[in-house]
């Protein structure tokens, strides 16, 4: 199954350029066509577009066409983003970045997953021969950002929930000394624990928001790995939810 790049590459631990290329092919990072899956409980319809955080420009143009079509049919768009909206001090921002890196085991620079200037993918050297780009901003994907909205959990809240559940994320000298544009080798959190926050907690939040949503048509622009979890959470709240056959 095509998964969210952030998690899948982290889990598989791809450590070389050739391995990265193979892994990217396996998860469909080079696909140029976006898919749409529909779910309904007889009252609401959810159109899920599995997003990639890197991909070819053709893929994002295809996403834009699908978003335009869905919005024309009256769908509102839910967007994925763990961006922090609270005011943090510079020290708090640095600590949060270190803890998120510890939680995920990977580096994400300010330029995104792919750094075309330095030729890296999440800190690993990468020859981008097929012109992959970072996911564009939502407005560039055609999303009506006035009617649509971010439905996700900010990073600082995720860290707080994790630490309340499992205890403090302990940083070490290696964490503080490791630049964010290099490979991360300082040890990461147990994957079951990190997935409980990065996947399960966010899936539950997404499904809960869908259940409370007044609009009957919802388009979800979220990473591919969240789709099955969202559906599972919806079914737990209402057994009437089903996936519609592809047309």
Topology readout:
Layout lengths: L4 H8 L4 H10 L10 E4 L4 E7 L2 E2 L1 H16 L3 E4 L10 H15 L9 E2 L4 E2 L2 E2 L7 E2 L14 E2 L4 H12 L6 H5 L13 H22 L4 E7 L3 H11 L4 E2 L4
Parallel strand pairs: 2-10, 4-9, 4-10
Antiparallel strand pairs: 1-2, 1-11, 3-8, 5-6, 6-7
Can you offer a commentary on this structure?
The protein has 247 residues and is an alpha/beta fold. It has 8 helices and 11 strands. It has helices at 5-12, 17-26, 57-72, 90-104, 155-166, 173-177, 191-212, 227-237; strands spanning 37-40, 45-51, 54-55, 76-79, 114-115, 120-121, 124-125, 133-134, 149-150, 217-223, 242-243. The longest helix is centred in the last third of the chain and has 22 residues, at 191-212. It is globular. Mean pLDDT is 85; it is low at 1-16.
What descriptors fit this protein?
single chain; 247 residues; alpha/beta; six-stranded mixed beta sheet; three-stranded antiparallel beta sheet; 8 helices; 11 strands; 15% strand; globular
Structure summarized in a few sentences:
With about 250 residues, the chain is an alpha/beta fold.
Distance between the termini: 20 Å
Spatial extent as radius of gyration:
18 Å
How much of the sequence lies in strands comes to: 5-15%
Strand arrangement within the widest β-sheet reads 9-4-10-2-1-11
H-E order:
HHEEEHEHEEEEEHHHEHE
Would you identify the regions where 5 or more consecutive residues have pLDDT less than 50?
A: 1-16
Structural class from helices and strands?
A: alpha/beta
Overall strand count: 11
Main sheet characteristics: 6 strands, mixed
Quick check: average pLDDT? 85
Structural shape: globular
Total number of helices: 8
Give the % helix: 40-55%
């Amino acid at each position: 199954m095509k998964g969210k790049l952030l998690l899948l590459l982290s889990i598989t631990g791809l450590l070389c350029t050739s391995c990265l290329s193979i892994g990217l092919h396996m998860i469909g990072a080079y696909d140029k066509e976006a898919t749409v899956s529909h779910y309904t409980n007889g009252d609401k319809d959810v159109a899920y577009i599995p997003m990639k955080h890197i991909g070819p420009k053709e893929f994002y143009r295809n996403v834009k066409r699908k978003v335009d079509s869905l919005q024309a049919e009256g769908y509102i768009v839910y967007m994925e983003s763990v961006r922090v909206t609270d005011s943090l001090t510079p020290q708090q921002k640095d600590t949060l970045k270190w803890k998120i890196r510890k939680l995920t085991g990977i580096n994400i620079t300010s330029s995104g997953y792919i750094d075309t200037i330095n030729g890296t993918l999440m800190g690993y050297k990468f020859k981008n021969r097929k012109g992959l780009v970072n996911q564009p901003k939502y407005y560039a994907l055609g999303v009506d950002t006035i009617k649509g909205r971010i439905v996700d959990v900010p990073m600082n809240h995720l860290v707080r929930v994790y630490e309340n559940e499992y205890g403090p994320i302990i940083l070490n000298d290696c964490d503080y000394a490791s630049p964010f544009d290099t490979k991360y080798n300082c040890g990461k959190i147990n994957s079951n624990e990190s997935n409980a926050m990065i996947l399960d907690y966010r899936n539950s939040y997404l499904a809960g928001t869908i259940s409370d949503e007044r609009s009957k048509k919802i388009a979800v622009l979220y990473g591919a790995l969240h789709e099955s979890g969202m559906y599972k959470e919806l079914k737990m709240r209402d057994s009437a939810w089903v996936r519609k056959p592809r047309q």
